[in-house]
Amino acid sequence: PPPDPPATDPAPSEPVPPPQAKAEAKGRIRAVIIGVVNYKDGIATPMIGAFNDSVLIAETLIREGAQPGDVTLLLDPPTPELMTARGNPRMRQTKVVPDGVGTRANILAALKRVVDTTKPGDEVLLSFSGHGMQQNEAVAGSEPDGLDEVFLPYDTGPANGSEKIQNAVTDDEIGAVIDAIRAKGGNVTYL
Fold first, then answer.
1. CB under 8 Å to 123, separation ≥6 — which residues?
2. Which helix (H) or strand (E) element contains residue 132?
3. 165-174: long-range contacts (C-beta < 8 A, 24 or more apart)?
4. Which percentage of the chain shows pLDDT scores above 70?
5. What digits encode the pLDDT tens for the residues 103-131?
6. Is residue 73 classed exposed, middle or buried when 0-12, 13-18 and 19+ CB atoms within 10 A define those classes?
């Protein structure tokens, strides 16, 4: 057999720079923070902690660099009667002014607004503080257990004849918002 040809060095070339990671866009810190304290009689017990939870999250985001206009806070304060009934607990004093209360319409409008204005690289926090429960699934076969998880907004009404809770925000609705934000290049944290 003929001998192997001699090894040749490749032609000298310019040094090859190391591969660089694709630069990611630096986005904004954005949030929709919902706190529901008061519910109609017979719907759910008041959740006084939702007030402090929501205010502390909003204040922290703003302190860490979020622009106040990029933080939507939907929150109802505890009533004087609730404060008295609970022994006047210490509530967070804040300069953050809520953008409204957490009704179904306000929640869905805030979620739509954050989807519509999301840009690649945005960090979006969705925080829901209040009561939740389960109801029969809205779309048959969409849930392994046959139940939707729902968040109860400020204007929640009783369950109707089909066992759907009036004005509840479903896991499917929240999931669609998360998917839409991600599709636009945003990152989502959900609390």
1. 27, 28, 29, 30, 186, 187, 189
2. strand 132-136
3. 165/133, 165/135, 167/103, 167/104, 168/104, 168/133, 168/135, 169/104, 169/107, 169/108, 170/135, 170/138, 172/138, 172/139, 172/142, 172/148, 173/108, 173/111, 174/111, 174/126, 174/128
4. 85
5. 999 999 999 999 999 999 999 999 999 99
6. buried
What's the pTM value of the predicted model, to 2 decimals? 0.82
Would you say residue 141 has pLDDT above 70?
yes
Angle, alpha carbons 41-45-48 (nearest 5°):
125
Handedness of CA 104, 106, 110, 116 (dihedral sign): positive
Q: Which of 145, 141, 149, 143 is nearest to 173 (CA)?
A: 149
How many other CB atoms are found less than 10 A from the CB of residue 190? 12
> Tokens representing 76?
């109802």
3-class SS of residue 35: strand
Q: Answer yes or no: are the C-beta atoms of 110 and 117 closer than 8 Å.
A: no
